[in-house]
Amino acid sequence: MMSATSTLALTHFVTLADSFDKDKVTPGVLGFIVFAVIGGAVWLLMKSMNKHMKKVDFEEQPKGGEAGGTASAAQGPEPKTG
Questions:
Q1: What CA–CA distance (Å, rounded) separates 32 from 39?
Q2: CA distance 78 to 80
Q3: Which of 59, 56, 54, 57 is nearest to 70 (CA)?
Q4: Could you give the C-alpha distances from 60 to 7, 42, 44, 70, 71, in angstroms and in order?
Q5: Residue 52, Cα to own-chain centre: how many angstroms?
Q6: Burial of 8 (C-beta count, 10 Å sphere; 0-12/13-18/19+)
Q7: Residue 8 per-residue DSSP state
Q8: Among candidates 33, 52, 53, which has minimal Cα distance to 41?
Q9: For 4-54, what is each residue's pLDDT tens digit?
Q10: CA 61, CA 54: separation in Å to the nearest integer?
Q11: Would you give the distance in Å from CA 82 to the centre of its chain?
């Protein structure tokens, strides 16, 4: 014999099954494949970026006499007025 709670739960499942639309568009396997390819591409781009960033040789503060020459070069050209 079924209890009132289980009968109520089963009636909710039946209404959910009736409301399922067989013509509804879902992502399916093709959506998963596209998402996986995009994820793989992002992973490869990140791996390549890390490889290139490790090659960068960057000095935060120039040493000794170079400080004056590189500071003015880093500022760029004077803006034109008029």
A1: 10
A2: 6
A3: 59
A4: 72, 30, 29, 12, 12
A5: 20
A6: exposed
A7: H
A8: 33
A9: 666 666 666 555 556 667 788 788 899 999 999 999 999 999 999 999 999
A10: 19
A11: 46
Structure token pair of residue 73: 């070069």
Q: Which amino acid is at 53?
A: M
Which tokens belong to 5?
């709670």
The answer to whether the CB of 70 falls within 8 A of the CB of 62 is yes
Helix/strand/coil for 77? coil
Q: What is the DSSP string of 13-74?
A: HHHHHHT--TT----HHHHHHHHHHHHHHHHHHHHHHHHHHHH----SS--TTHHHHHHHHH
CA distance 72 to 42: 39
Per-residue pLDDT tens for 65-82? Answer: 555 555 555 565 666 675
